[in-house]
DNA sequence: TAAAACCTGACTCATTTGGTAGGCTATTGC
DNA sequence: GCAATAGCCTACCAAATGAGTCAGGTTTTA
């Protein structure tokens, strides 16, 4: 699957939004970039992708910015990563062909393995929500919205 | 980590060696390429990397070729993949800094997550050996050449 | 001694990654 | 209604990676 910087940056940005959650008052890209020390124009693209995936909502104009579209406990790390880095998988060979034979020896067994590993990744990343990360990040303090 | 074609090809080649194990009679690259339908010159590089990692041994000259360096039950999928695709990790940001604080909010928590996921991958891929794959491969279908 | 096999390194060609630049459009405060 | 703010969109770019190919060694051994 390979989490690229996009996946990491997206997580950092959303985590920042969750940490400073303030009702439905949007946070500007500039503020997020400042708090996370990420390059602003790049972050803009990433937030756009997150918006496309329905993870975040935006408001334009003065006083605009981004807000989480759902509560942090309803946003999984898997959703974040796959929104910006594409589907979570171990590699991108096709699916194991079930119907009968493989083209070549052992191929099917390996495809099944890669597929299984991808599933494992997906499951694990789905088991963590943004809320969990907020807890981890702030240690003991709970900053719910 | 992203298993590239190299990881898949390396596995296919070694699986082929394991399936046609014949004492210590080496198999030539050409034969392996033929059986697995992989591009021969590319496969040559991959086998070289596997040799460098000590997974395979080679014999030169007429009648030369490659042999597994150990029994299939002592070769894990993690060893194969990391030999040709580099260390198994979820992404390549640094290690989580333990000693006190992160540079920016939440960063540490995320680094810890990526690291944990990488560990999960490594563990799972280490739990399968070539011998397991041989079983899987010959269990599901006829291994014709 | 020459064929079979391994080894080395450079080269290509396409795609992805990690950005930057710049203009457009919607919203709001005055 | 005008300008400032702030998101939106398109393009571009350089470097790295991925997936191979190719040419030319060197070593071994029948």
CATH topology-level fold name of the domain at 5-87 and 128-138 in chain A = Arc Repressor Mutant, subunit A
Number of helices of chain A: 6
Overall geometry of chain A: elongated
Largest interface: A-B, 43 and 46 residues
Low-confidence stretches of chain A: 140-145
Q: Helicity level of chain A, as a percent range?
A: 40-55%
Provide a short characterization of the protein structure.
The structure is a homodimer of 145-residue chains. Chain A has 145 residues and is mainly α. The first copy, chain A, is built from 6 helices and 2 strands; from the N terminus they run αααββααα.
SSE order and pairing:
2 copies of one chain form a homodimer.
Chain A: H1 5-19, H2 29-36, H3 40-52, E1 56-59, E2 65-68, H4 77-85, H5 107-126, H6 130-138
Antiparallel strand pairs in A: 1-2
Helix pairs in contact in A: 1-2, 1-3, 1-4, 1-6, 2-3
Chain A binds a DNA duplex (30 and 30 nucleotides) through residues 4-6, 28-30, 39, 41-42, 44-45, 47-48, 58-66.
Give a verbal description of the structure:
2 copies of one chain form a homodimer. Chain A contains 6 helices and 2 strands. By secondary structure, chain A is mainly alpha-helical. Chain A has a domain at 5-87 and 128-138: Winged helix-like DNA-binding domain superfamily/Winged helix DNA-binding domain (Arc Repressor Mutant, subunit A, Orthogonal Bundle), CATH 1.10.10.10. Chain A has a two-stranded antiparallel ribbon. In chain A, α1 packs across α6 (130-138).
């Amino acid at each position: 699957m390979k989490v690229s910087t996009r996946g990491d940056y997206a997580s950092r940005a959303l985590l920042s939004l969750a940490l400073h959650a303030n009702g439905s008052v949007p946070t500007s890209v500039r503020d997020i970039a400042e708090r996370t020390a990420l390059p602003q124009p790049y972050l803009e693209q990433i937030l756009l992708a997150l918006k496309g995936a329905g993870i975040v909502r935006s408001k334009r104009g003065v006083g605009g910015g981004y807000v989480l579209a759902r509560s942090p406990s309803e946003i999984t790390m898997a959703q974040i990563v796959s929104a910006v880095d594409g589907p979570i998988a171990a590699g991108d060979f096709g699916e194991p062909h079930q119907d009968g034979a493989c083209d070549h020896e052992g191929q099917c067994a390996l495809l099944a393995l890669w597929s299984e590993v991808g599933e494992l990744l997906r499951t694990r990343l789905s088991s963590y929500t943004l809320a969990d990360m907020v807890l981890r990040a702030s240690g003991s303090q709970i900053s719910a919205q």
